[in-house]
């Protein structure tokens, strides 16, 4: 594994290292129910958990190969060859694969075989095993371990040559031509425990399938717009920054978000209006989908009608006054208000194909997720926290609601099975952000259930029916049990 890491680092293709390639293949093969379990249980740590699991699995297999080799080295060599073949297969089947991505697994397998032969030779000298042989095995093993760790570390260091953090830090974005409506005073409900109206880049949720973050240098970046268009367009990053950029507050939400969940964030995005770029390319009749692709090979399908209906769909380059963080799509991503991330928010975007739903399917829609996935009206109680103990008397109940692009027009809350009461709505810059709400509760001692529901700009109230995130977003009302003392 160390030798393979070194090879991957030397190639400048960190994702071709066998552990990462196999992990990425694993992500693609994971059934949606297991993916939802993983996101629910581990959230943004899902990737770490997967890699730790893989490492443990490899350790067990390696131990098995080791004991197989005690009497017949050939069996161990065969075992290693199988492991290597899995690595090669995984590396070559990545959507971004190049033929030489097979190399790290080949190098790793060769190094593993050499190490195994060396160890078995040391263990079984012609004279038969003795105390001296045992000492030699331990020394050889220790030496090989040191070499492996050093190779792995060197590989990681080499891989960092491709990091774009430095380029990003040196980048200056132009100011917006159209600035965002200011966030109104009072958008932030001031109660301890309330999330910030604008989510900082550091706190912004992250959901993607990328085990290694794509390192896309803006100097090499291009965005191609092609397919059912009259004039295909190809933009460099400088071209993009030369367009009139606008700044908008938009709340992004993930379809995997559960009732009461926090897979959503609100940021101020700086970007070029996507509709203008499509008009420049000249969308041809019959098209109804934009199939976008990220540098990670991910594909997303977005209904063309939503992008062209006048909403602020952006090719975003900035997030909260900075270039996009690498984890959030540097140097450019899509943001479309009102649609779940998996049908709109392509990070590291490099390609837009104007096409038809009947012709092309994207990563998640191929796995059964809905093609049309407007964000469902959602409301959440943020304070008090679940199972909090609060003092009887005046208690602040507050939270967050969203119905992007339709807007939240009412939030109601309920204690136990009592009447629904209107909560106070905080002001918002527009219908594309989430909206905070608050109410005052005269709490009587005992255990109580607080419940919330929101209504959107179309007049519809969030349904009580509980549905899981698959295939087009969870429904149900959030409730919190608290103890009043
Ligand atoms: N290239 C790429 N873009 C992607 C994804 C991905 O896996 N790869 N995931 C999508 C999903 S499911 C969501 S919810 C949003 C999340 O954006 P964030 O990580 O910036 O919050 O990105 C979307 N864009
Ligand atoms: Mo998502």
UniProtKB/TrEMBL annotation:
InterPro entries the record matches: Ig_E-set (IPR014756), OxRdtase_Mopterin-bd_dom (IPR000572), OxRdtase_Mopterin-bd_sf (IPR036374)
Protein name: Molybdopterin-dependent oxidoreductase
Gene Ontology annotations of biological process type: sulfur compound metabolic process
Residues in Oxidoreductase molybdopterin-binding domain copies: 212-360
Keywords: Membrane, Transmembrane, Transmembrane helix
Residue segments, region Disordered: 458-478
Keyword Transmembrane helix (UniProt): yes
Transmembrane segments: 47-65, 77-97, 103-124, 136-159
């Amino acid at each position: 594994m160390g030798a393979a890491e070194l090879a991957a680092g030397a190639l400048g293709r960190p994702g071709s290292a066998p552990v990462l390639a196999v992990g990425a293949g694993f992500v693609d093969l994971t059934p949606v129910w297991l993916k939802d379990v993983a996101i629910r249980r581990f959230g943004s740590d899902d990737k770490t958990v997967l890699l730790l699991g893989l490492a443990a699995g490899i350790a067990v297999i390696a131990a098995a190969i080791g004991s197989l080799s005690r009497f017949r080295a050939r069996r161990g060599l065969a075992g290693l060859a199988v492991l290597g073949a899995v690595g090669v297969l995984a590396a070559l089947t990545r959507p971004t694969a190049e033929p030489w991505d097979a190399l790290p697994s080949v190098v790793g397998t060769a190094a593993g075989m050499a190490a195994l032969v060396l160890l078995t030779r040391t263990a079984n000298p012609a004279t038969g095993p003795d105390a001296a042989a045992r000492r030699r095995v331990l020394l050889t093993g220790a030496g090989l371990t040191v070499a492996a760790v050093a190779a792995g570390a060197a590989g990681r260091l080499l891989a960092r040559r491709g990091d774009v953090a430095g380029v990003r830090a040196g980048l200056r974005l132009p100011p917006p031509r159209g600035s965002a409506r200011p966030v109104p005073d009072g958008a932030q409900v001031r109660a301890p425990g309330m999330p910030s109206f604008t989510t900082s880049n550091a706190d912004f949720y992250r959901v993607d399938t990328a085990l290694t973050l794509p390192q896309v240098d803006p100097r090499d970046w291009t965005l191609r717009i092609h397919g059912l268009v009259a004039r295909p367009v190809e933009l460099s990053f400088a071209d993009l920054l030369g367009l009139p950029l606008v700044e908008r507050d938009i709340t992004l939400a993930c379809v995997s978000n559960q009732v009461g969940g926090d897979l959503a964030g609100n940021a101020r995005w700086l970007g070029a209006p996507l509709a203008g770029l499509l008009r420049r390319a000249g969308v041809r009749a019959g098209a109804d989908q934009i199939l976008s692709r990220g540098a990670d090979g991910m594909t997303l399908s977005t209904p063309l009608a939503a992008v062209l209906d006048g909403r602020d769909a952006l090719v975003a380059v900035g997030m909260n006054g900075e270039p996009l963080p690498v984890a959030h799509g540097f140097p450019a991503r899509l943001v479309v208000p009102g649609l779940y991330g998996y049908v709109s928010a392509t990070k590291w975007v490099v390609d837009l194909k104007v096409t038809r739903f009947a012709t092309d399917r994207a990563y998640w829609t191929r796995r059964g997720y809905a093609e049309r996935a407007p964000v469902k009206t959602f409301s959440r109680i943020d304070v008090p926290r679940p199972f909090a103990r609060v003092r009887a008397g005046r208690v602040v109940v507050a939270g967050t609601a969203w119905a992007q692009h339709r807007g939240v027009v009412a939030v109601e809350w309920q204690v136990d099975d009592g009447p629904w009461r209107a909560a106070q709505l905080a002001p918002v810059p527009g219908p594309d952000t989430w909206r905070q709400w608050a109410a005052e509760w005269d709490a009587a001692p005992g255990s109580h259930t607080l419940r919330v529901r929101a209504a959107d700009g179309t007049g519809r109230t969030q349904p009580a029916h509980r549905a899981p995130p698959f295939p087009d977003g969870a429904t149900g009302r959030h409730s919190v049990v608290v103890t009043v003392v």
